[in-house]
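Students often ask what a 'structure token' actually looks like in practice. Rather than answer in the abstract, let us consider RNase III domain-containing protein, a protein of 1295 residues. Its sequence is given first.
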Amino acid sequence: MLMGPSQHQHGGTTSSSSSSSPSSSEAAAATNETIVPVMPSTANSDAREERRRHDESDAIQLFLQQFLPTATTDATSTTTVNTTSPNPIALLQQLYNQTQPKQEQDKSIKPWFHYVDWKDDDNKYNWTCYIIVPASLIKLWKLKSSGGVYYSGRLLGISSSLMNTKKIENDDGDDADRCDGSDAENNFTETTGLQADHDPLDDALLHLCGEWSAVSVSPAATTTCAKSLTENEHIRFKLKKGAEKSAALNLLFAIAMERLDNDNEDTTINYEVDDVCASVESSSSNRIIPKQVVEGGDEVRLQLHKLQLYGNVQYPENDEYLSRDNPCKVRCVVSVLNIAKNGCGDGDDAIHEVTSDWHNNADDSIHDAYHKLKTKHETLSLHGNDAQMKKCMVNILSEMQKRSKTTIIAYEESLPNWATAKIGSKFYLHELEFSIVNNCDTEHTEQSGDDVTDSKKTSMSKFMQVDDDAATRVGIVCGCASLEYGLCADFEWTGIADNDTQRVVRVAITNSTEVSHSDMMQQIEQVSPAIQLEEGGCPVSLTKCFNKIVFDYGKQYGMGPKPVWNELLDAVTSCNDVEFGNSRNFMFVPLLPKSDGTHANSSTCGIDWEVMYNVVHHKTTSIVDATSPSCLRNRFITQPTGFGGRVFIAKNEINVIETPSSPLLSMELALQLPDQLKEKLRTTFLGCELSNITYAQYFEQVHRYSIQHPEKPLVAARSLSQLTYEQHELQLRHRQSGESSKAQSIAYSPRCSISNILTDRGLLVPELVHIFPLPRDFLYICRRASSFMPKLERAQTLLAVASRLRKLQQNGIARGIAPAHSVSTDNLLPLVDKATTRGSTSNNGSALLVRDHERLETLGDSVLLFFIVLNIFAKLSITDDEFVLDIFDRMISVQGKNRILFNAAMQIGLHRLIHDGSASKSSWKSKYQTASKVSCIRAIEIAPKQLSDTVESIIGATYLADQSGSMTVGFLNQIGPDFPDMFDSDGSTCDQAIGWFAAKGTCIKEGFPFTEHPRWVDELERIQEIMNRHPDIYSTLQRNTAGFREMLACRTSLHDHIGMMKSDSTALLLIHAALFDDSLDNNQYNHDGSDLEKIAQLRDKIFNVGNATLQLSIVTEIYHMYPESTSGDFQLMKSALMSHDALAYIFVKNGFHTVLFDTDADAISIMQGYVKEADLVGGKEWTKNGGWIIPGGIEEFHKRVHLHGDVGLFRPQYMGLAAGRLMGHRKRLPMEASDDLQFSMKCVVGAIALIFGVHDVWDLFRPFFLELLVLSPEEMRTCFMGVSDLASNYQKGKR
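Now compare that with the structural description of the same chain:
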């Protein structure tokens, strides 16, 4: 159990509590909040400082003893050390659980942890970690000084000097503190069992968190203690888990020390902690840093206080998604703390803050902020000389660059242009149609935009129990015409059909029209000439006031004080005056009903101005004979006479038999009245029997109103005074047909009065009833806007992105890099949605979003690798560099870096598309909804890795939508300019007018277009000449190529392709190069030592193409074959099929080694031995299950391979393979056994890919891998757990 220091804080203060109180000036100084240590000037302040140090030291030692090894001494004086220590992460989880309700205690704190892997440094200590504490816990745990961010670092962020205080007695008997550290350190090591030959805190860090290193980032600065951590050191851990534990320990310590600070009110020293917000990551350790004061110096010291980055798209006139014309601009806000001279007080302390201009990347914005900061300090003349200024600013710049490495950019929420467009003299009106989606149609994509047949949906009015002639048509008014006809989105509505049932409701754009200001004025005159717009009003202002009532007063509509016109006008005017950023400007309006059941008004939308005017001006109407029961139920009603300000909703009582001539009270109810009320009624009605008093008599005697139509039935209604808003809604959706005449016990009345009794009975006099103009169905739908409008906004965004991607596809087709390929919107939209939707694993629904996103990301990673390799191959036609493989490796590693993809994403404004699938709908708001209730602008934090992963997800989505590759190439050309290019020195960089992709074809459905690349034509001709100069080599390769074709022909039906390998000269040359595996060491054919190197270099290039092709083909196959697979499943399957051992095994097992040029290579004989040995081991396991690895044996195998389209594979043959390893070998084989053969396998695949394309090469080689593919990831884990380390490493959901 975690023990807080507050329980022991008074241990060192008892003897000093009787000292004389400080003077008034000292007391004032003690209460003054300072951020630097106040230099004590009296013995009393010295004593307070000493007591504080004792309290802090005791608290720290007590805290540490929970985690460090404990030294104990038994009766034989033998010292033992208990090395068992509690896990800080487990303790933090336990502490979190104690603060949460029972239903929330199963949530993990793992999402709090964030990591930085410093792989760019040549050091084995690469890991740092930081924790972002949820905002709700910062206040609960009183973490007021850190902003909720805690970093890994030197243990507790303190030095041993805080531990080197041990209470001893002076000669005069007074207590004093000893700070030399000798006795204190011995005492600390005795109680913890650590050795005293090192700093005990450093040893403790090693014990708790594993190996670590303090990395120097700049020359060491002067410090108050030689062993304390300075700003110039950076703690990094060897293991990721060690960094996790360190960050958790620092947070636990901060919680404990904050308790001490909150209880100890006499503290006069406040320590400054790095002020880092949740949106800023810092690479510096989380440590308590006293202000560094230069004793006796006159210079002013500057310390970096805060660095934050903000991103936003500066919208152009013609907004376009995924375009370099709309990059995300970055702004840097940096502040420094100006510490006063000598640190004697904080009167001169100040925080200087500067803000950069908007820039295309974070680095430029940081440098801009730095130069602004430097100019500001020069203007203020804060330093005595130029050298001092230079030294100070260099340190500031270094710290800024260090923090910026892991800083998260906070983005302003981006909304579609149609939602934020200003409404001027012309605007657009769109009708929204709502329908309940039947179960058979729930799988329909919500953004498809296609019409749904009537058999698959039910109108909203039917479920709301409102007749079609009484149902309200809903429209929205916006400032642009971007919304497309047929646009639709699905959302959930609980209770729309049943009380607790969640049904899917579809909202769709069914009609659209353009309206001008003059058109609106004309419509108002035509609809109701009686409408007189007051001073300052206009149709737009009327619409804004109407929306103000709907969203701010809807729940209390008809009850309480009503806002007057001037108040509403002022409120909506203030909405226009306040800067709302990305606020939604569109408004909801009721539309004119369809006339007489026809669609006369449905083709062109018309606003029901009369309803809007009456709502804004609170004009009610009386019930007339023409009012239908359905229309009456769709309104709020009131009866001021007899019921005051109560608001009712009408029941669906069709056969109400009571009239004003009916008895006011039934006999049963009259008998239940209290005696006092009975007597009062008898007196009023001159002794009449209570059960004989009629409604007409009651209103005439009590309210002095004579009913004019006593023959009309009463109106069955229910009061809203005791109903929740959800119950209001429920009353409209379900017909109330109970017996209205049934007496109700007066015990249910809140007060014993006739008015309350009649209210409970719910029968109103028709001629006294007033109808409020606002339709209930319209109000309830608008109140659900936070559920459906974000979905509709998202759908429109996805349509715009799909349109953009199709345009990029056409650019590729126009260049001739791929044949025309039709892309369906139905296929593209859900893919783009999954690619740009992020979620959390905290709940099942959001976990599905994570899985879909990660699946596309994994596929996109393979697609990106393939096109990078193909682009390099196109550019690397001629090279004499023997290190061709190194060139490919360098280019792939540079262009595929997360940082490069992040910068590319910024340049196309990709963050605008990222959708938080688990975000609360409460983030949506209307501009005319009170700003104090809902935030106008929502900041979205997206880590750089999330943006780079989204780039890969979109690449995966484009490949699935258009497997010709033209859409993918179009997208890559958008981000390609941010990829570093290593070929600009030799003139082979592609034309900027063409784009990043230099190849003339995608090599997906067709082979590589060598004839379109003149340099490659020349290169292949030179290699053919080399072949001709070595007839022995050429004849051997010709013979082996024929054997290779025969092997493929036995397992495929693509005989035309086999024939082309025989007749096409380029195909023959590529296969010859792929099979030429000679090492060229002491080659008897190579007289000049250079010509055959050309063939080897071509083979190296083919190898890279084959590696990327094979990975893309296998990952694509897994994606389609296992739609429920997670990222961990992908990694396991890919590793099991593409490991060096697996490829070498497949290569030998199918006899491909016999057609290589060097059949006498040592690798072949070594691998054959391993294959034979593994088959013997695996064969025994297969025998147990009837001829295969899983129960069902051969029969189950046949069933699976036939299901996946291969009828030629009669028996499984890879009995020696075990999830990427060989049976009997849990880890990979020695390099000399498998490396050369797997290299040859990829070379063969690469040659075929360059001849026919990716699709055809997989058709040829898929039969050789199908046996492994039909084993699911879970079956691989089950069968080979403990047999293969890959099955153990790649668990489900783990990469």
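One point worth highlighting: The radius of gyration is 39 Å. Ask yourself how you might have guessed this from the sequence alone, and why that guess would often be unreliable.
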